[in-house]
Specification:
Blueprint lengths: L7 E4 L8 H11 L3 E6 L3 H10 L7 E3 L7 H12 L5 E4 L18 H26 L7 E6 L10 H21 L5 E7 L5 H4 L4 H11 L9 H14 L10 E4 L10 H17 L1
Parallel strand pairs: 1-2, 1-4, 2-3, 4-5, 5-6, 6-7
Length: 279
């Protein structure tokens, strides 16, 4: 178990107790770290209820990722409470309904741009706004974002997939320019996870079936947030990963490197069975 006693972390993107970000905050507290969360608008009350269910109640600060002015205000609010910040979790993503669900060819430009700003530009805004606090950490601070494999096109994911590709590029450039300050920036890419945002993708069930059938290590979307994603995130937030930056760690049951996955093996077995019966 990684111990993070006395460390201070900001976790964004907590909506409810089933969100990946909530499980990360929960694990950080179990590792003896201090945690603050962010939320905004009407969602803030839901986040506050989820924060109350953590092992220790956590304060929730305001951050609307679509408002550029919120990022320096957030940095000021964190700085009023903590003299330094050891890490931040970027779990912010979103796209208008007409930018996902098979509407890639017809989505309005403003909807595509909104997905890009919310899901990718926000990583830059968050990391740069908090960098003065991160650099004061004894470990110089770590930024970890949540990702979904952007190397291929996923039906229904559409402009969110484009935004995730941009997120990965933003991560690399942040790693390049913040590295001299000792600040690390990495991503953890997961498979489909049973969350409110995950269910917002119209093809979630198809993606989930693909992972359940083909992932070499198997896949359980209901348990993945706590059982699969949390560990790599805590590792990257800790000084155990002090030599790693600009990377995407795929905590996806092995799907990233599986190609056709187990389906090819099943087809081979079926063909062998038929040949055997024919003889």
């Amino acid at each position: 178990m990684i111990r993070l006693s006395g460390r201070r972390y900001l976790v964004t993107g907590v909506l409810s107790g089933d969100s990946i970000a909530w499980h990360i905050a929960h694990a950080l507290q179990l590792a003896d770290a201090e945690v603050m969360l962010t939320s905004y608008g009407r969602s803030r009350r839901i986040t506050e209820l989820a924060a109350a269910d953590l092992p220790r109640p956590a304060e929730v600060l305001e951050l609307d990722a679509s408002r550029p002015e919120d990022f320096p205000l957030l940095a000021s609010a964190v700085g009023e409470r903590w003299q330094c910040l050891d890490g931040v979790v970027h779990a912010i993503a979103g796209a208008p309904p007409d930018a996902i669900g098979g509407t890639f060819l017809t989505a309005p430009a403003q909807s595509a741009e909104a997905a890009f700003r919310t899901s990718a530009v926000s990583l830059h805004a968050l990391a740069t706004a908090l960098s003065p606090l991160l650099v004061r950490s004894p470990g110089r601070g770590s930024v970890v974002g949540l990702d979904f494999d952007a190397s291929v096109a996923w039906p229904g994911y559409d402009w969110m997939g484009v935004a995730k590709a941009a997120l990965e590029s933003v991560c690399r450039y942040l790693a390049l320019y913040l590295g001299p300050q000792g600040i690390r920036v990495n991503l953890v890419a997961t498979g489909p996870v049973e969350t409110v945002s995950g269910r917002g993708v119209s093809t979630f069930e198809a993606l989930n079936r693909r992972w359940e059938h083909d992932a070499p290590l198997g896949w359980n979307s209901a348990a993945a947030a706590a059982d699969v994603v949390v560990g790599p995130v805590l590792f990257l937030l800790s000084e155990l990963a002090r030599g790693i930056t600009g990377e995407v760690i795929h905590a996806d049951g092995g799907m990233r490197g599986a190609g056709m996955g187990l389906a090819a093996r099943d087809d081979h077995d079926l063909a062998t069975d038929r040949a055997t019966k024919g003889s």
